[in-house]
Amino acid sequence: MRPTEPGNPSFALVATDLGRVRRCTMTAARWTEADIADQSGRTALVTGANSGIGFEAARALAQHGARVLLGCRDAHKADGALARIREVAPDADVSILPLDLADLSSIRNAAGRVAADEGRLDLLINNAGVMALPKYETADGFEMQFGTNHLGHFALTGLLLDILNATPGARVVSVSSQGHRMGRINFDDLAGDRGYHRWLRYGQSKVANLLFTFELQRRLERIGVSTMAVACHPGGSNTDLARDAGALMKLFQPMANLVMQPAAMGALATLRAAADPAVKGAEYYGPDGFGQTTGYPVKVHSNAYSHRLDIATQLWLVSQQLTGVEYLD
User: Fold this and answer.
1) H/E run at residue 293
2) Of 199, 225, 236, 296, which residue is 20 to 30 A from 137 by alpha carbon distance?
3) Using alpha carbons only, what angle is made at residue 157 by residues 70 and 24, rounded to the nearest 5 degrees?
């Protein structure tokens, strides 16, 4: 469940901004999994691939012939995801990549394994995430939501950039949320030590995904490579992302489930960003329904803050300092 879903306690915070954003229009041609071309010969790494949007994206890419690396923290859940993919695609080329986005040492190990074992990387889908947690820290002492949702993927992308850039037409797809509309980067208190609101911290991490995507695209263009950075969001999707979002969320969950779309529908924006040959760098995809909550994927618009060059540059520099992963300077 994402923050713009009806039933979410932060829905009102986000909905007030929707009127200032150009709404996408329904299109006659609806993009679905049937529009995914043959992915044979391509390799994709999907983080958080054991459930929800990540699983459905990994499953669809595998069914269309891609070699898929399931980047997962929990080995047991990863085994289950692999088995479920093999049930629908017995010949799928799928492997598990141990990966904890809340631990820089795990990220480095995973990236090193990809560089050593894979000859190419066509798709990096930065999907894994946590939402509206109580205040926790990552293994490296970062606030958990910012550390996992943004810093972990920032580091992973940088460590995999050489193999991505060596693969013609590679893409980095980062999964954001309508929750980005309530996000601002609190550079003076990234750790949340002077104030922690779980939903605002979630929004901060999700606007960081967009700031990162747009800045990454600018820097890739600057060095003249074909790798593209694209963003997407799943709208209101029925996943277990909100499992730690608190008692109020659990109270609203049954009502929210009535209006949410299945995870497979929510994954369509990710899949379009990853596989549609018409996609361009720095584009953003989400559902075409009212408030971008449900529907088929189209190009949508993020808020003005997510396009701030000054904020994006500062975030990039701070992210390099915190993770120790420097690239595209």
Assistant:
1) none
2) 236
3) 85
Q: Which domain holds residue 82?
A: 11-323
CATH code, domain with 118: 3.40.50.720
202 assigned to active site? yes
**Can you say how many angstroms the Cα of residue 68 is from the centroid of all Cα atoms in its chain?**
16
* Total count of domains within the chain: 1
Residue with the two structure tokens 């990549």: 97
What is residue 238's predicted lDDT score, i.e. its pLDDT?
78
Catalytic residue of the set 136, 202, 285, 305: 202
pTM score, whole prediction? 0.88
Contact between residue 47 and residue 54 where contact means Cβ atoms under 8 Å apart: yes
Residue 6 lies in a domain: no
Q: What pLDDT score does 54 carry?
A: 98
Pairing state of beta strands 171-175 and 123-126? Answer: parallel
User: What is the average pLDDT across 76-86?
Assistant: 98
Give the list of residues 6+ apart from residue 219 with CB closer than 8 angstroms, or none: 328
Q: Which two tokens stand for residue 239?
A: 């996943």
Task: Note the pLDDT tens digit of each residue in 274-316.
Answer: 999 999 999 999 999 999 999 999 999 999 999 999 999 999 9
